Amino acid sequence: MRPGMGALSGDSQVSLYSALYAGVSGLSAEAAAMAAVADNITNINTVGYKGTETQFSTLVTDGKARSYYSAGGVQAAPQSLISKQGLLQASSSSTDLGIEGQGFFVTRTGADANSDVAFTRAGSFKPDEAGYLRNAAGLYLFGWRLDADGNYVNTGNIAALEPVRVSDLTGSAAATSSIEVRANLSSSATAIAGPYTAGAMATGATTPQFSRSFDIYDAQGGTHRVTMGFVKTGPNAWQGEIYGDPAEVTAANGVLASGEVRFNPDGSLLNDGSYATTFFDDLAVTWTNGAGTQTIDLKLGEDGGLAGLSQFGSDSALIASTIDGGMLGSIGSVQVSDEGVVSAIFDNGIARRVFQLPVATFPNPNGLTRMSGNAYLMSDQSGNFAINAPGALGAGVIRASMLEASTVDLAKEFSDMIRFQRAYSASSKIITTVDDMLQEVSNLKR
Question: Is residue 363 within 8 Å of 381, Cβ to Cβ?
Fold first, then answer.
């Protein structure tokens, strides 16, 4: 035997075994890649699914240059492209929701506050038997509950969110909080003689030149009729008065509001504060039936506008009016606006805003931890979440009656399947070839 031949033979054997292990790592890596392809293909129709892309990383046993080479092999490095936006597709359900832009819906695995928090873009929400909005994976949608004025407070804490449920409103009452009136007062009307005395229309001492009555509701669902009357007191000047039944309100003679109303020469409303009036202030009504005091927002138009009160030559007439409140019967449907506001629509036509949906964003959404049900958990790599109203501070906008499609490209997945299959076959050839070479080494003893 020549000098050094034993060492050369040993190095060769090390290289052969490293090639064998490299072939095994190739089989393992390609198998993992094929598993990711299988997951992607089977979820081609899963709402909000984010495809997984498999990259490969080299394994090196010794990076120094030598007279022999020790193979390291390869390992799979799958990456979920969670931040990739899927196509928004139209849906026939008003509670199917999609997010256009960054962010996730805030959900929990149960309706109670101790349930696990999960973030998802799978917005196929439907009311369950208890009235909660849940998606196909059974996750409960959470949001801020709105108060009677439609407001909420964002503390940034998920603990402040409640499960979205509107069925508990059935059979309750909603007090009137807004009266919106659009009406024309005839410019050709004759002004009354002498100054107007506040309360004269309420007591009947002065007959209104134009009046309309409205039914409003207290907090117990009781109905009360109030009248809005006007008399002309001079050029472009009117006196307005709102009054109810003196037996139903604590205000003297039932007068809820009384004050001057003026108009610009072009017939639009003059409400720039240039004259003293309290007619446009919110109504503070105290009922005598024990229903308590309620504040009603009076919407009669803006300064220089024609969307409220106006003065033109045509007859005085009520053009349109909108008054909220009333007894809430059975819920006919649940609707979600593009602003993320959940409203209950009752069978008597009353609509009530109940919840504001938040959108949660992360510094690195691709670092979230995946969980069953097409949802994600916060991790160290994702960073902490921030919850804001849709469209605020980088949060995406909610699109109602839309669903986000899977991001999987079927043609690419089939192409990757062919590549991984070929690479798997080649890795197996490495193993069988190294086996033949090791057999040759064993034959040297014969």
Answer: no
